[in-house]
From TrEMBL:
PANTHER family: ACTIN. It holds the Pfam family Actin. One of its GO terms (biological process) is proteolysis. Signal peptide: none annotated. The lineage of its organism: Eukaryota, Fungi, Dikarya, Basidiomycota, Ustilaginomycotina. GO terms for molecular function: aspartic-type endopeptidase activity. The gene is ARP6. Belongs to the actin family. It comes from Malassezia arunalokei. This is Actin- protein 6. It comes from the Eukaryota. Residues 457-482 are annotated as: Disordered.
Length: 482
């Protein structure tokens, strides 16, 4: 049995496909990989390049005006040819292959856990199965969602019920999970994600300073390393300015705005040097190829920022950068943009979005689950996704949810060490578990074997029928499970 367990673990792959990135891991190697889910083309010139997936990060010589062809739009795969190209690169990187010229049968005999969008259309589900079984020849698959893997990434004992808030690139979903099953009738969506925030930041920069409308990639990097969330919307005592002894992490949104009205060059301002790709040093140095902070609070590049470092990140006095900006460099000033951007989650109407706030989304979701599970969900809220990394979010969300929760129920919000790769940790727990354990039985119950899929008709089904995908409807626990 021990040998069988080892062989099973040695043939497992998890492929978490998001609109911005593809996250992948395999059981042969401990490393987890996150690569851009895009095909990029640099602007015309001597160094014109077309790059796929991880090559965008490792080989691109000019991120200025980078044109992105993204396979996913509004949470759905709309370009399967591009998606397959990115998957090919991801699999080659994770499995240690030498070439992507022929990826047919690359997953032959392997167990594959692949994530799909929430409420994926039936045609999309069928396309997932066809590509994995017919081209990559996977031995067995579990087509699931990111939220369904999160409970297995948590420390034991796992909670019987929890609420996963997936703050993705296209949308933000609140997904309740009870006894490892998604309560699909209670899932709620906010039409706000990282893509909208990046676009909004481009507009703010372009209106106030430099034209950044073609700099999506660089703007997204700045958003991820410089923005934060204010402690609250307004001070309880209605003070325009915070007390002198108040820590920056306790400043309200209104106080931050007033501080900028009083002094535009306060301690929160970052002077961000944009890279000059005509300078070889800027391209070669990983610390400057996306730009860097010349003065002001230092940017962070860790998966999450420890809360004891939040004050220094917001308005800490930092030493000037060792990199000196020449006259050829453009300097971008990050001031109110640092805290205005993510305020949209708490006041969507500020950007013209006629929906409730993130706290209201969570409260509405919890109100639609069975009554006996609601109290537990308030104490088991897990934030995942790229936007879950923003400093100050957990504290602000906890404070605002307190007004929505019952008085006698505590509100507890958990953020994994790496909110982006939490699903990979959950999948790894499943395939490393003993077949007789709870995790092992859970994985086995959700898998669909390739032979069974082919026997059920595979992809050869008349119009209107699902062929082998009907097996997934019964096993995967998706929204259209029968």
């Amino acid at each position: 049995m021990r040998r069988a367990r080892k062989e099973a673990a040695a043939a497992a792959v998890v492929l978490d496909t998001g609109a911005a990135h593809v996250h992948i891991a395999c059981s042969e190697h401990p490393d987890m990989h996150t690569i851009p889910n895009a095909i990029a083309r640099t602007r015309q010139g001597v160094r014109r390049q077309v790059l796929v997936g991880d090559l965008i990060e490792s080989e691109c010589q000019d991120y200025g005006g980078l044109q992105l062809r993204q396979p996913m739009d509004r949470g759905m795969i709309v370009d399967w040819a591009a998606q397959k190209s990115v998957w090919d690169r991801a699999l080659v990187k994770a499995l240690g292959c030498k070439t992507t010229t022929d990826t047919f049968g690359l997953l032959r005999g392997r167990t594959v856990i692949v994530t799909e969008p929430y409420f994926a259309l039936p045609e999309q589900q069928r396309a997932f199965d066809m590509l994995l079984f017919e081209w990559y020849e996977a031995g067995a698959i579990w087509r699931t969602t990111t939220a369904q893997l999160i409970p297995w990434s948590l420390t034991t004992p796992r909670p019987e019920a929890l609420l996963v808030v997936d703050m993705g690139h296209s949308y933000t979903h609140a997904v309740p999970i009870i006894r490892d099953q998604v309560v699909w009738d209670a899932v709620r969506r906010l039409d706000l994600g990282g893509k909208v925030l990046t676009s909004l930041l481009k507009v703010l920069f372009s209106y106030r300073q430099w034209n950044m409308m073609d700099e999506t990639y660089l703007t997204d990097k700045m958003k991820c390393s410089s923005c934060f969330v204010a402690a609250c919307a307004r001070d309880e005592e209605r003070r325009r300015f915070p007390p002198q002894d108040a820590s920056p992490s306790s400043w309200s949104f209104e106080q931050l705005v007033e501080m900028f009205h009083a002094d535009e060059d306060n301690a929160m301002v970052q002077q961000y040097v944009l890279p000059n790709y005509a300078t070889p040093e800027d391209v070669a140095d990983p610390r400057t190829k996306y730009g860097h902070v010349l003065s002001g609070p230092a940017a962070y590049d860790t998966p999450t920022l420890p809360e004891d470092e939040l004050d220094a990140f917001i308005a800490g006095s930092t030493t000037p950068s060792q990199h000196v900006a020449s006259t050829e460099h453009q300097v971008l000033r990050l001031g109110q943009e640092r805290f205005q951007l993510f305020e949209s989650f708490f006041a969507p109407k500020r950007i013209g979005l006629d929906q409730g706030s993130l706290p209201e989304l969570i409260a509405t979701c919890i109100s639609h689950v069975p009554e006996e599970a609601r109290d537990m969900l308030w104490t088991q809220i897990v934030l995942v996704g790229g936007s879950a990394r923003v400093p100050g979010l957990r504290r602000r969300l906890s404070q605002e949810l307190r007004m929505w929760a019952p008085d006698d129920v505590p509100v507890q919000i958990h953020v994994p060490h790496d909110p982006i790769e939490a699903s990979l940790h959950g999948a790894r727990t499943l395939w490393q578990a003993s077949p007789t354990s709870e995790a092992g039985r859970c994985l086995a119950s959700h898998l669909v074997q390739r032979s069974a899929w082919l026997d059920a008709g595979g992809s050869h089904a008349p119009p209107g029928e699902r062929g082998g995908t009907t097996l997934g409807d019964a096993h995967f626990g998706g929204w259209n499970t029968t």
